[in-house]
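Researcher: Structure prediction, please.
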Amino acid sequence: MDNFENNEIKIANYLENKMSAAEELAFMQELDGDDELRKQYEEELLVRVLLGDTEASQEPHFAEEKAAPVIPMYRSYKMVAAAVLVILAGSIVFWAVERKGRPGAGGDDGNSSGIVKGTTRSVRPDSPVVVNSPVLPDSSGQIVKDNPKSNPKGATPNPKEDFLATGHATAADTLYKEFYRVYSTRIPPAELAILYGEYQARNYQAVIEASVSDYLTGVSERRNHSLEQYIGLYKGLSYLAKDDPDDALQQFDKILQSSPKTGPVYYDGQWYSALARIREDELAKAADLIKDIPQSASPYAAKAAALQKKLKELLAR
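Model: Predicted structure follows.
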């Protein structure tokens, strides 16, 4: 087996959660020192992001399990599919722009004067057309050149729309795909075994809708507080799995504000909060969240160090 095929196996096993925690750490360290492996990994990661291959990162995995390697047999087909997808997206955008700039492209609406809608000048039907922003009156009757409804102030960028417009995934998309893994543990609190089982089974809505009071034992206030933290964690993780980072962050923020900073639920909330920030394309906030993790006792210390390096590079651009 040549080096390329060996790398393919390692990359597939990492992206599909078939490595133990120790193997993941060794792989990430190898990425830092092997330019050929890094290039091959980034190509495969980009293909999966472009094709929306998120199913692999949705599979729970445990550190004790070591699955047999799986060789990706259809990588060449996926590369072709990704290229076709990029070309198709670009063609659609070009066709829409070209059609918008063609006189009368909107259909026969009785406008035969040669005045292009949205402009204040006339043009010859056979001359080049430059389409300006729509000219609309505001509430005071004044003419404004931009329609605020078409691009509301403070609108949040949509990564899927960005992909259709540019033909490539955003840096945040790629980074999230690289570091996000479904949360897993073999020892959830005994009182929450059923709720955690719902999360494992991907019944995320059931976890989100679960009533906190149904899981509190009443044995002690301290125990109930701990259970509330874990319930909030499972709800946040479920929101994130449903691609709702905003609601996920609300749950994680509560954990970070009220949990002991050296406890396991705090470490979990801190890591997944950073990933939610990345999903929201808030890279600076994610960098601030993880700045102390590499030096802590967090089980995410090694991954946080690798993520910290990536974020530093992106934010320096």
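Model: The first helix runs from residue 3 to 15.
Researcher: Thanks, that helps.
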